[in-house]
């Protein structure tokens, strides 16, 4: 009996195995990894196409540009660029272009056909004024249309703008000027065009800067040399060198020039700004004093008001540069009616006494006393 049951179990297992093998053979071989990926890509592409079909309306107008980006290539600064953005109404209803709005005033929209029938084409004319531009340029042009669900569009105008001449450096900056030295700087002007450049006039309205021109290669390369007039008084100086040129049309070249002549005793900062009190912790401020002339500098009678602020004088460079360190104690409060300043004397005849005021962002105002009810009138 047991033997007969075992034979039945074995037969059942063999039948089940043969049935599974038959199902697998009928279904075909197992897909390999590439086939699985291909099927996934097909599904993804199908879903993307389905999404595109959902975005694009089946009815109504549809705006399709031949190019959404117009590359005008390379032009010289000052040239006017005109371009046409061609488009087609591939929808089933009339397309209406309601508004064209460029990003900035240098880009302007010309005329365009406001209504385009289905299947018809049109264009939008855009002009770009490149005056004052240089380098890579990218401008956006926005529009409003009557397409349901997608009422706005944007196209781009891009390219590179070069100046007809190159200026290097573009500005002359002398920085700190020593009035006892002969200072000069050189600017190179290079013509990029085939036509020769002719320069007729070079001038500077500020007499403290003396410009003159040197021809390196006739019609192509020039050097502008700017000198500082000796013996300048302390102060800030700024001006510009104006060059009249023809290339082939008349052009003006403007090169800014600047410099600073420090006083004999250069103090920085000229005033101290601190936060309003009471101070939550100890605070330090540093004043730098530097002698710009030949010889030596001595400081004396160093004081500060009020006396609770501590002063320390440190000689950084012997007889030339000093540091004044101010230490404000914790809880320090500056009242409006009490002026605060650091003062000292020097051995320099043109700068015998110095005063550095101390200011805060907001003065501390003590609260008004609270009157008791006993002192109040009934």
Biggest β-sheet strands, sense, barrel: 5 strands, mixed
**Which CATH architecture of the largest domain?**
Sandwich
Task: Tally the structural domains.
Answer: 4
Distance between the termini: 121 Å
E-strand count:
25
Class computed from helices, strands and strand pairing: mainly beta
Low-confidence stretches: 23-55, 363-378
CATH class of the largest domain: Mainly Beta
List keywords for this structure.
378 residues; mainly beta; Immunoglobulin-like; 4 domains; 5-stranded mixed sheet; 4-stranded antiparallel sheet; 13% helix; 49% strand; disordered C terminus
Structural notes for this entry:
- This protein has 378 residues and is mostly beta strands.
- It has 4 domains: 24-55; 63-162, Immunoglobulin-like (Sandwich), CATH 2.60.40; 166-261, Immunoglobulin-like (Sandwich); 265-360, Immunoglobulins (Immunoglobulin-like).
- 13% of the residues lie in helices and 49% in strands.
- It contains 2 helices and 25 strands.
- It has a 5-stranded mixed beta sheet, with no helix packed on it. Strands 1-3-7-5 form a 4-stranded antiparallel beta sheet, with no helix packed on it.
- The longest helix is centred in the N-terminal third of the chain and has 26 residues, at 2-27.
- 15% of the residues are buried.
């Amino acid at each position: 009996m047991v033997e007969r049951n075992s034979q039945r179990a074995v037969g059942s297992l063999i039948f089940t195995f043969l049935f599974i093998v038959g199902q697998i053979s009928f279904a075909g071989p197992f897909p390999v990894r590439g086939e699985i990926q291909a099927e996934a890509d097909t599904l993804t592409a199908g879903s993307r196409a389905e999404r595109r079909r959902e975005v694009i309306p089946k009815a109504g107008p549809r705006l399709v540009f031949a190019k959404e980006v117009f590359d005008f290539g390379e032009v010289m600064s000052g040239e006017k660029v005109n371009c046409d953005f061609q488009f087609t109404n591939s929808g089933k209803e009339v397309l209406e272009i309601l508004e064209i709005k460029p990003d900035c005033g240098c880009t302007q929209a010309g005329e365009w056909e406001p209504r385009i029938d289905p299947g018809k084409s049109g264009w939008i004319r855009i002009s770009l004024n490149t005056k004052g531009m240089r380098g890579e340029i990218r401008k956006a042009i926005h529009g409003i249309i009557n397409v349901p669900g997608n009422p706005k569009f944007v196209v781009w105008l891009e390219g590179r703008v070069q100046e007809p001449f190159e200026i290097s450096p573009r500005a002359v900056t002398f920085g700190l000027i020593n009035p006892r030295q002969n200072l000069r700087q050189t600017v190179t002007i290079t013509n990029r065009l085939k036509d020769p450049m002719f320069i007729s006039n070079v001038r500077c309205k500020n007499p403290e800067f003396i410009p003159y021109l040197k021809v390196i290669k006739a019609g192509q390369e020039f050097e502008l040399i700017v000198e500082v007039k000796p013996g300048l008084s302390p102060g800030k100086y700024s001006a510009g060198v104006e060059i009249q040129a023809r290339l082939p049309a008349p052009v003006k070249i403007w090169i800014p020039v600047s410099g600073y002549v420090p006083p004999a005793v250069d103090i920085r900062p000229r005033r101290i700004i601190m936060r309003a009190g009471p101070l939550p912790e100890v605070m330090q401020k540093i004043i730098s004093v530097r002698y710009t002339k030949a010889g030596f500098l001595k400081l004396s009678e160093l004081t500060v008001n009020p006396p609770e602020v501590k002063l320390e004088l440190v000689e950084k460079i012997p007889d030339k540069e000093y540091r004044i360190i101010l230490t404000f104690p914790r809880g320090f409060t500056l009242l409006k009616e009490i002026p605060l300043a650091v003062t000292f004397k020097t051995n320099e005849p043109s700068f015998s006494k110095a005063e550095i005021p101390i200011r805060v962002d907001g003065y501390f105002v003590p609260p008004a006393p609270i009157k008791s009810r006993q002192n109040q009138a009934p």
